[in-house]
Amino acid sequence: MTNMSLKASWVAVDWGTSNFRAFLMTPEGQTIDKLTASCGLLAVPNGQFSDTFQQLVSPWADSINSLSVLFAGMVGSQQGWRDVPYVSLPVSPDALIQNMADVTLPWGKKGWIVPGATGDNDFDLPDVMRGEEVQLMGLVSLTDNCVTHAILPGTHSKHVHVKSGELTHFQTYMTGELFSVLKQHSILGRQLPEQQHCDTSYLLGVDAGRKGALSSVLFSARTQRLFNHVAPENVESYLSGVLIGAELGTLNEDGPIYLVGDEKLCQRYLLAIEHLDLQGKIMSGDECFLAGMTTIYQQSRNRCHVA
Amino acid sequence: MTNMSLKASWVAVDWGTSNFRAFLMTPEGQTIDKLTASCGLLAVPNGQFSDTFQQLVSPWADSINSLSVLFAGMVGSQQGWRDVPYVSLPVSPDALIQNMADVTLPWGKKGWIVPGATGDNDFDLPDVMRGEEVQLMGLVSLTDNCVTHAILPGTHSKHVHVKSGELTHFQTYMTGELFSVLKQHSILGRQLPEQQHCDTSYLLGVDAGRKGALSSVLFSARTQRLFNHVAPENVESYLSGVLIGAELGTLNEDGPIYLVGDEKLCQRYLLAIEHLDLQGKIMSGDECFLAGMTTIYQQSRNRCHVA
């Protein structure tokens, strides 16, 4: 990926709970170089974000102190470098830019953290995101503003509505975290042989999960195995189906649902979406992130250059 | 509890995944003595159920080899002493008796394991219980056959319909296990101070949980705290409310709903049930278990005495 013949002008940083990623960027949004580390917020000792950041970007030590630095993700949370208040819906790139907060970089200049978004969901419950709002701004830009509905699968899957390029509504589903916690710590994952993915078991789970009453339907990941409707090595496929089915059960969209994220996980969602006779379209989560950060960088150049 | 002036004629054993309990009983169903141990199935080494049972009941060694022994619970599962097939709905005491399976006790006589029950639930998914069927038979007997709907809260909460003294339908909700797993292993329980129960937070959770889409509503156990709608020390009360609300959300019953189980947990369910303008009535889980085992013992005396 390294392409040092291009001229870097800024750095995009995705700093989450478990991982750190930094991208050396041209003004036009091309990536010149990339750094990754499994050094998420939880691994930063005693709030030493500045020192840790300096170490993480040390391969770029020669040039970085002249560049703008934009951060997104949980780095702007209570557990992060600075607690940046959420921006309320509707959210545009401009709203994000207006509400960025600065931190002092190790070399004395300011870096800028993009805020997360908040709004009440379908159930009038408060909902939040940090990081996905940037991917959505990128999705809007990459699709020429024609996206209306997107799903960002993951630990906390986000279902999002977009109107005229603004994020207008979203709802979180704890699908990924429930899957991980239940297979590791509940009776549903106990005494399973090595798992193999099975589309049939997965779609059986999707159909069960759509029925509602998740805390009841989950138990079928045990009983379907007990009565040999699901093979022991396919129980995780079924469980994954139940959780994704519960999430997709209420979908009723015209037009394509954009799936933004990890390719393999998006493929799994696409299978369920097509099984439900809906239309889906996969977009790379990384590309959306970088497109979103580029939009924010380009629209905020004056502000980010304040040192 | 020991009352050795009464004459023992049989032993009721509740042997589950985590705990062992045995009751020395009179023919009429009075308890003479009780043994408890945290020696559930998972603690029995290499399938040595006979040896383990002998150790557990050694305080009764003088008399037990002349008594009938009835077992209920997970001791009749794949992981137990003997895998006793489930009985299909509808289930009466007679159906349980006809399908009991024997094991050879350490002193050579036969002991009898009461089978569990199975049936398709509201979602046409297979459902199972082991142990609760005995409590239900006891509930029927203690209420003079006038129970129509009961909830047995716990790790895997059971919602049950009864008609003319027979168990006709039931549905499992993984409420207790989800609560335990989520507070210990998910973001919802992370970095919480010492918890205090709070009815207001609990009922706020019940109202949220009733709304459906559990994998989404669960996330509000994080956001309600983030926006100070729920105090950090009351998050578990709220989470408990969400899970119980999700379970109770579809209830629509005339007549009282019997709550069978641990007093404290039943009180918590009762609070939610009354909040939903329904009627509840608490019955001791232990009393129901012993009444159910007594019904089975009395109706099966000839068979159980086969040695």
Automatic annotation (TrEMBL), chains A, B:
Coiled coil: none annotated. Pfam families: DGOK. It comes from the Bacteria. This is 2-dehydro-3-deoxygalactonokinase.
